[in-house]
Amino acid sequence: MRILIMESKTDESNAVLPPDKVTKRLINSSAQLLNKTKIEPNIQITDKENSIEKIFLLLHHEKGHDFSLYKLNPIYRRIERRMKINNIKNIKDYVLYLQKNKKEVELLFENILINVTNFFRDIVAFKVLDEEIIDPIYTKKNPHENIRVWVPGCSTGEEAYSIAILFQEKKEKQKKDIEIKIFATDIDTQALAVATEGNYPATISNYVSKKQLEHYFTLNREGNTYKINNEIRNTIVFSEHNFIKDPPFSKIDIISCRNSLIYMTKELQKKVFPMFHDALNSGGFLFLGTSESIGDFLNLFDETNRKYKIYQKKETKVEDAFSKGNLI
Question: Which of 29, 68, 146, 166 could share a disulfide with 179, CB 3.0–4.6 Å?
Answer without folding.
Answer: 146
